[in-house]
């Protein structure tokens, strides 16, 4: 099993909590961490600085497409960030935790 972290950001903590809850309940993620962040970016030729909630979603690599679809279904942004980061090193115990809590 290959483990990954999938990241997305949300405009509100409530939206992030909703996505996290669905991913955990559907066993698509073993753990979802939420952090409050400040994002600087350009969108449609305008500069923005927004407070957002970052989701770090710990899961199996095989779940990326299902999680991407679920994020797109539940997300309020026109173009949400959905990126996958490979976990190249982790304790065997933590990898077992991810495997045991995801489908």
UniProtKB/TrEMBL annotation:
Q: Pfam families given for it?
A: CutA1 (PF03091)
Q: Which GO terms describe its biological process?
A: response to metal ion
Q: Gene3D superfamilies, alphabetically?
A: 3.30.70.120
Judging by the UniProt lineage, the source's domain of life is Bacteria
Single GO MF descriptor: copper ion binding
Q: Which family, according to the similarity comment?
A: Belongs to the CutA family.
Instruction: Provide the protein name.
Output: Divalent-cation tolerance protein CutA
What organism is the protein native to? Arcobacter cloacae
